[in-house]
Specification:
heterodimer; A: 490 residues; alpha/beta; 15 helices; B: 97 residues; mainly alpha; two-stranded antiparallel sheet; 3 helices; 35% helix
């Protein structure tokens, strides 16, 4: 049996039927890691010994009825900004190089209860700030489809690990597209849930009003099953919502006849790569053939989304990252004169360039004299953007957009011009500003064979529409293929 | 707006951000921030005079709980993360003369 061909749900089913053991799945994943990790570098840390021991424990638990869930026994990788008790959690930053959390993030407790096996921690952009995983202080991750290209970011390690078969599932986090964009670049499926659906307890904060943890997997059904495990109210996160509609899997039918899709026409204007546009338009055609209604409409606030997002995200980041001062955890500069110099030197040496850039921008837009003109202006703009989305969802069930205007850039090209990199987030950031759920599903490849993803955006709490549409489309699309099959490009 | 970032503003930003940049780094940061601010000035095109700033998407509702300790005492494990500790406390440079 080729374990690489199985989805997470299929693996768990075969474990239940005693066709394979939990250990077989875990061993398979570590074999892949051994064979590919020196090329891909998706992980910052792996836990082979613990995972093998845990596999045996879970096997026993499945047999004695402790673990009955649909993903029991499945290996999963965790983005390195999510705390696991006793395991170094660096956020891919030098400033947290030695940080060992004393507690589990809520999502980790939920994975443990559901019988999943944690394989390791994945690479990311430092503090999730970046779109390529190149701002990591611990080296770049490479795209499994072509090792000369980035995996996207910031959850680049999680998406590359799934794409390379180095795990069946992964958790990422999404503040401005950090699950949906790398999912697109790596040809995997990833969903950012409605704000408040998954507890942020134990997720190292970047921009608290925008951050959400979400699943990355091989297909839509795997993501739905994983979201069902991690979603739910948590008293430890004051923004956690009391939702009752957390059954996502049963919304996945093959039929989308009569479903209404809207496409913001501004999203298709300048800057969109022709190959991405073609794949996107072909997907619209597929949906129409399946009986869905696809219409174009105008989203007038489009050009204001990135300015509003970067002001708000940087402002929140500058405030959240104040805590890294060399006192309670992490790195402290070796030489300093007095307390304030210690703070400054620690932060200057401990943070990377992109993080410092955003902390400075955030400090500026929140500073006396500029707060109204920048920060409040951005919050007012956010209200206008939200209003336009509300209007759109009064007409459409789901909005469609590319996940990124282009396919995965080459390594080393994006950080030269930060503003140009930010502009690549055009299709993803508004979803976070408005708290909406969004899913990326692979929908094509460019001439060089790099994956292209379509993004489906739902109204708040309407993940079911996304799972229904994404699952139906995926079925029509057929097999997308796997990266690094029969030797990778290098 | 079209705010021009001068040396004084940059100095103030570094104080707020608690960063000590070299002159070269400061120059580069100034350039980057100028470019970004010129770009976000686009928001000025929008008339937002009648729009309230929106900080939360969902209704603001305070979450209360009884003031009861539910987690155990793990101060030793927490202190173990400190770069410097002494006698069960975080150790920082001398702050009072």
């Amino acid at each position: 049996m080729d374990l690489g061909k199985l989805t997470a749900l299929q693996l768990a089913e075969k474990i239940k039927q005693h066709q394979i053991s939990v250990l077989d799945g875990v061993k398979y994943v570590f074999d892949q890691i051994e064979a590919k990790e020196d090329k891909v570098h998706a992980y910052l840390d792996t836990y082979k010994k613990e995972a093998y021991a845990r596999a045996k424990e879970v096997q026993k638990g499945i047999e004695d009825g402790t673990y009955t869930g649909p993903l029991a026994g499945v290996p999963i990788a965790i983005k390195d900004n999510i705390c696991i008790k006793g395991k170094t959690t660096t956020c891919a930053s030098k400033i947290l190089e030695n940080f060992v959390p004393q507690y589990n993030a809520e999502v980790i407790d939920r994975l443990e209860e559901a019988g999943l096996v944690i394989i390791g921690k994945t690479n990311m952009d430092e503090f999730a700030m970046g779109s390529t995983t190149e701002t990591s202080a611990y080296g770049v991750t490479r795209n499994p489809w072509d090792l000369e290209h980035v995996p996207g970011g910031s959850s680049g390690g999680s998406c590359a690990a799934v794409a390379a078969g180095e795990t069946y599932l992964a958790l990422g986090s999404d503040t401005g597209g950090s699950i949906r964009q790398p999912s697109s670049y790596c040809g995997v499926t990833g969903i950012k849930p409605t704000y408040g659906t998954v507890s942020r307890y134990g997720l190292v904060a970047y921009a608290s009003s925008l951050d959400q943890i979400g699943p990355v997997g091989k297909d839509v059904a795997d993501c739905a099953a994983l979201l069902e495990i991690i979603a739910g109210h948590d008293a430890k996160d004051s923004t956690s919502m009391k939702r009752e509609d957390l059954d996502f899997s049963s919304s996945m039918t093959d039929k989308i006849v009569g479903m209404k899709f809207g496409v913001p026409k501004e999203y298709l204007s300048e800057g969109l790569n022709p190959e991405v546009k073609e794949a996107f338009m072909n997907t619209l055609k597929s949906l129409t053939e399946m009986g869905a209604v696809v219409e174009f409409f105008s989203m007038k606030t489009t050009e204001y989304m990135i300015p509003a997002y970067y002001i708000i995200a940087s402002a929140e980041a500058s405030s959240n990252l104040e805590r890294f001062d060399g006192v309670k955890y992490g790195f402290r500069a070796k030489e300093y004169e007095g307390l304030h110099d210690m703070y400054k030197k620690t932060r200057t040496e401990g943070f990377g360039e992109e993080v410092k850039r955003r902390i400075m921008l955030g400090s500026f837009v929140l500073s006396s004299g500029y707060y109204d003109a920048y920060y409040l202006k951005a919050l007012r703009t956010k209200a206008l953007i939200k209003k336009e989305f509300d209007e759109a969802f009064s007409k459409y069930d789901v909005l469609l957009a590319p996940a990124s205007p282009f396919t995965a850039p080459k390594l080393g090209e994006s950080l030269k011009d930060p503003l140009a990199m930010y502009l690549g987030d055009i299709y993803t950031v508004a979803v976070n500003l408005c708290g909406l759920p969004g899913i990326t599903v692979p929908c094509g490849k460019d001439a060089a064979g790099l994956p292209i993803g379509i993004q489906m955006i739902g109204d708040c709490f309407k993940e079911n529409n996304l799972f229904r549409a994404a699952h139906a489309y995926e079925k029509k699309r057929g097999d997308f293929g796997t990266a690094m099959e029969g030797g990778e490009k290098a | 707006m079209a705010k021009i970032i001068d040396d004084e503003t940059m100095e103030n930003v570094c104080i707020l951000a608690k960063l000590s940049l070299t002159e070269d780094e400061k120059e580069k940061a100034k350039e980057d921030m100028q470019k970004m601010l010129d770009y976000v000035d686009k928001l000025d095109e929008l008339d937002t005079s009648s729009v309230e700033p929106m900080s939360h998407i969902f209704e603001d509702e305070n979450v209360f709980r009884e003031d009861v300790v539910t987690n155990g005492d793990n101060h030793e494990a927490m202190l173990a993360n400190a770069p410097k500790q002494k006698e069960d406390q975080y150790q920082v440079p001398k702050t009072i003369g």
